[in-house]
Amino acid sequence: MMNKSVTPLAAMVMAALWPAISSGESYFNPGFLSPEDAAVADLSRFEKGNQQAPGVYRVDIWRNAEFIATQDLRFDASNKADGKVSADGLVPCLDTGWLQRLGLNMLAYPALAKLKPGECVPLAELIPGSETHFDFAKLRLDISLPQVSLLNSARGYIPAQEWDEGIPAVLLNYSFTGNHGSYDDNYYLSLQSGLNYGPWRLRNSGAWSYTRGDGYHSNNWNNISTYAQRTIIPLKSELVLGDSNTSSDVFDSLGFRGARLYSADSMYPDSLQGYAPTVRGIARTNAKITIRQNGFVIYQSYVSPGAFAINDLNPTSSSGDLDVTLEEKDGTLQKYTVPYSTVPLLQREGRLKFDLVAGDFRSGSDQQETPFFTQATLIAGLPRGYTAYGGTQLAEDYASVALGAGKNIGEWGAISLDVTHARSKLADDSEHEGQSLRFLYAKSLSNYGTNFQLLGYRYSTRGFYTLDEVAYKNIEGYEFADEQDGNHNTEPVVQSYHNLRYSKRGRFQVNISQGLGDYGSFYVSGSQQTYWETNENNTSYQAGYASGWRGISYSMSMSWNKSVGISASDRIMAFNLSVPFSTLLGHGYSRSSTLDRAYATFAASNNSEGDSTLQTGIGGTLLEGQNLSYNVTQGYSDSNGYTGSASTNWQATYGTVGLGYNYDRDQHDYNWQASGGVVGHADGITFSQPLGDTNVLIKAPGASGVGVENQTGVKTDWRGYAVMPYATVYRYNRIALDTNTMDDHTDVENNVSSVVPTEGALVRAEFKARIGVRAIFNVTRGGRAVPFGSMVREETSGVTSMVGDEGQIYLSGLPLQGKLLIQWGDGKDSHCYAPYTLPPESLTQAVAVVSATCS
User: What percent of the chain has pLDDT over 90?
Assistant: First the structure.
């Protein structure tokens, strides 16, 4: 026993001289958290940092700083060998299935095979160098796995097991437009219907048109296309049966009715799509490699000593040399440049892209036959930046074969060259044979801001024809479209012209853009097609300049077009100006108010016939969600006199509605349009804005009128359902409910979900909503406030909370009558029940305040 005569000063000296025999730690008395006469619950789980209760939490999961998914995951208390809870608080329960999803090389760790399905893997023990960190405040789980422990998968790779083929559903897209004019009425209805079942997508497209005038009318229904489609995951391809179109990689695109099986680029991660060179090098140590393009870092990683190859780059543009920096462990640097440009045909090393088609030619023109044909193409990415490709087209009166190659030629850009040989029999039974040579070139002069996006030339001999030309019923002919004039007479208008005696000779095309920094940019594009046996040609040129200053934008453009068989040429020059009202009012560029979101416009144009048009107007957006747009213009035209228009468009929850009015010297027109989508699913019918090819069904039962982040006008209906159109296929789509739009009696446990839809799918993003009263309870037990920090659960709804100061408890989503279980320890007498009854007026209050007794 210590001598009572030892002074505090002596005790301090002894502790300093013999530190090994003294120990201690900082301690905060929980009693200070509550009034003097109130009890405090067992808070030992919080003594080692920011501890949280074990359980299931919905978290964002990141692996080596790469987002993987947002999902519910079980967390257990983290225990050290001495039995104490570690400072990390919680550790995730990751089974072998999750490790496979994270891309772990399971064969490299035989001990994992001994674990049962669903059993938590002791990560740090079985996979040396691995770590987990759970940020409870952000609900973010970071998992760090050694690079050597992972399979060699590309950046952005999402395992096929995560792809969601969606739910069974019936889909309908509609678009209706109407016009009431001075001389006639016109109505048009477009319908796209579909059926999803498992991986299959059945689609149909049709249109109805109706015209009525003085003594005449027309009524037509046109079935445009019908097809079935599904994903073939093992082949990373899509299968289409019915009406569709071929690709334009090797041969010109054609419409067909039949079957097509083709490689789907979208099923590959972004880092493996298109073309990028393989970056090779040799590292002396464990080095950091950084790759830049046009000044931006596009890749950064670490490589082991020895030779390496980086083949999963995702460049930011189609041209621009790659600057590689290798930083060794000792600080020395290697720097070199990998020249890079691409044309559309180039593929990465080792990539095979195929396309197989068999069916009847289908153009929609009554001037052409529908011969049966087959087509096959193959594009292969080879080493050293080469790409080889080829294909064939075969029909009864037509046969062609194509062979070609492409190359990334470094600082000189990228080129491809191919030749097609064809044998044809035309409508007059004449037989022909010829070749067509195609050259494509692309190059970016990054230092000068110039981009040759595509520079191409095709030369064809006299006897060369395409399958599209062979399908014509006549050697020469016009195709007309009907048009009503002001006297209700129908006049034929030339839509196109063909003369097979004029076989194609040479085709030149160019697309050049030039950036000018703060002074804007300009572009030039054009094409010219010449023919054998005639000096006429098809020519089209466009040029333009655009820039801006303090929110003001302006542009100048010009186009010129001339077609064979049509004597007149079209030339148009135009100038456009847009000035925000915020700039006119001296606010600077802003969108903070309705007036600031308005803008004034001016437009002027002149065509080859000398007809000039001037137009001024105002436009902008209204409503809190900026989903109501408007535009009013007034102008003058040499041909039509004074003109004017007014239009508005509302992007609503269940569709899009628009109204408009136009007038000129000769007539007045009123027009309207409505479009939207309808989805039938297992839980009922949901109306939506116009659907995309791939969509997300949001299910939050009971949460009505809740908005969806980054989706203009999209809100849940009265049942809590909504459709988010235009989802991105084979990629993570983040679906988030806007909590600011929820009413006082709606809460969502987790307002963010993540889905990975396949092509054409309707995937479901489900949210658990709590609908009920929000209340603050003042709970006492034996005349004293229940212990601070006690855990609380309402038994009927299952909602949980924690006791705060003076026995206060906040809970949401409560029924009007229920019972609270309050627990402050693990002992038999460490809990009590507090029944409560809320008055009916609580349903109209933001937060109800009531008292309850716990026993």
Answer: 18
Task: Check whether residue 369 and residue 470 sit in a common domain.
Answer: yes
Domains in the chain, number = 6
Q: Please tell me the distance from the alpha carbon of residue 741 to that of residue 705, in angstroms, as a whole number.
A: 7
Regarding whether 415 and 517 lie in a shared domain, the answer is: yes
| CA proximity to 424, closest of 455, 397, 396 | 397
Q: Quick one: CA dihedral 636, 639, 645, 649, positive or negative? A: negative
Amino acid present at 439: F
Residue 577 structural domain: 568-651+664-672
Instruction: Print the SS3 string covering 398-413.
Output: EEEEEEEEEEECHHHC
Distance between CA atoms of residues 697 and 668, nearest Å: 42
Q: How far apart are CA 386 and CA 363, in angstroms?
A: 35
Distance CA 353, CA 350 (A): 10
Q: Tell me how far the alpha carbon of residue 464 is from its chain's centroid.
A: 42
510, 524 Cβ separation under 8 angstroms: yes
Checking if the pLDDT of 492 tops 70, the result is no
Asked if residue 518 belongs to a domain, the reply is: yes
The two tokens of residue 520 are 């804007």
Out of 47-61, 108-122, 181-195, 557-571, least confident range:
47-61
Residue carrying the six token digits 């080493």: 383
Instruction: List own/partner pairs for 93-97 with CB under 8 A and 24 or more apart.
Output: 93/120, 94/120, 94/121, 94/123, 94/143, 95/119, 95/120, 95/121, 96/121
* pLDDT average, residue stretch 636-641: 81
**Residue 766: C-alpha distances to residues 171, 217, 720 (Å):** 19, 49, 10
Reduced to 3 states (helix: H, G, I; strand: E, B; else coil), residue 482 is strand
Same domain for 645 and 749, yes or no, is no
**CA distance linking residue 99 with residue 255, whole number of Å:** 45
Q: Do 398 and 516 reside in the same domain of the chain?
A: yes
Q: How far is CA 774 from CA 745, 799, 840, 854, in A?
A: 6, 11, 13, 19
Mean pLDDT calculated for residue range 143-171: 79
Q: For residues 712 and 847, state if they share a domain.
A: no
The single residue listed with the structure tokens 């030779």 is: 307
> What do you get for the CA distance between the two ends of the chain, in Å?
46
Residues 577 and 721 occupy one common structural domain? no
Question: Per the structure block, which two tokens stand in for 399?
Answer: 């046969």
Q: Domain end: 638, 672, 706, which one? A: 672
DSSP letter at 332 equals -
Query: Is residue 39 situated within a structural domain?
Result: no
Reply yes or no on whether the pLDDT at 189 is more than 60.
Answer: yes
Cα 453 to chain centroid, rounded: 24
Q: Which residues contact 592 (CB under 8 A, 6 or more apart)?
A: none
Asked if 276 and 348 touch (Cβ cutoff 8 Å), the reply is: yes
CATH number of the domain bearing residue 791: 2.60.40.2070
The verdict on 375 and 498 lying in the same domain is yes
Query: Looking at per-residue confidence, does 402 or 320 come out higher?
Result: 402
Residue 140 CA from chain centroid, whole number: 22
Helix (H) or strand (E) holding 681: strand 668-681
In a domain, 468, yes or no: yes
Tokens of 370: 């529908």
* Same domain, residue pair 392 and 310: no
Cβ contacts of 383 within 8 Å, gap of 6 or more: 278, 349
Does the pLDDT value for residue 221 go beyond 50? yes
